[in-house]
Input
Amino acid sequence: MAVHAHPDDESSKGAATTARYAAEGVEVLVVTCTGGERGDILNPSYVVPDGHEFDSLDGRHAVRREEMARSAAALGVRHRWLGFVDSGLPEGDPLPPLPEGCFALVPLEEASEPLVRLVREFRPHVMTTYDPSGGYPHPDHIKCHEVSAEAFAAAGDAARYPDAGEPWEPMKLYYNHGFSMESLRAVHEAMEGAGLESPFGDWIESRAAREIPEREVTTYVPVSGYFSHRDDALRAHASQIDPDGFFFAVPRDIEADVWPWDEYELAVSNIPLPERAPGEHEDDLFAGVREALDAERAAGDEGREHAQVNA
Ligand SMILES: [Zn+2]
Output
């Protein structure tokens, strides 16, 4: 279960991972907390399709619902909305107040309840979300972290959210990373080495100057075989993603060569993990999960045999 704040986030964060696992037979559900109603048109070549308008929250949501359906189809994943309203990215000094009723202002338990219900219905073994900073400071991204962490912790506890279904405890929680300094530098150098203009030069300098502490990457999932799925998903969000812009600035053969991974931070594990040498990373979000399920099944079989003997 990959939990995201807005329609399009699933195409820019961990997209190739979801496409890869779906192609390998894992049931993958993308969950989008908000309808993306306060996103502006970010693609200069975008033309609002006939029969749609982008001037109202409802109009934008209708456009973005269709884009999201195309993205989910490109990734080969299932998709559900949580139904909250986009908070928008507040800008200005001082920052304006958040709009009434938006996702970021919904109290934590009320905002988490639909996700707890969905976790108990879909019963994921692994969940992904953003780190506590949101990955970038959009109030909906921070809230997405908060409701995901809450649902991960509470869904298995029958005493919490008692009206939201049968308890289910997921095994692992990950934070999406990507665009780590290490990855930016690797791609930047490869682009310059190939005589191409790198899109990352200014970004690397400004991030280095601000000395933002890098979060730990524990897990590198090889996904270069699924870049084309990710790119189709990005293009599906035609109002948001410029097909000639930033996300498409790096030739995919260079990317596959120097950075063929999606990066994650393992935040919580409720299962024992395979031993790793120092400096060795995970390459699979399901590392340890199949073993844990086998152990559960073996324990279950023993339990049943025991019951039969007793009978
Ligand atoms: Zn977003």
Observations:
- The pocket of zinc ion is lined by residues 5-6, 9, 138, 141 (CB under 6 Å).
- The longest strand covers residues 261-269.
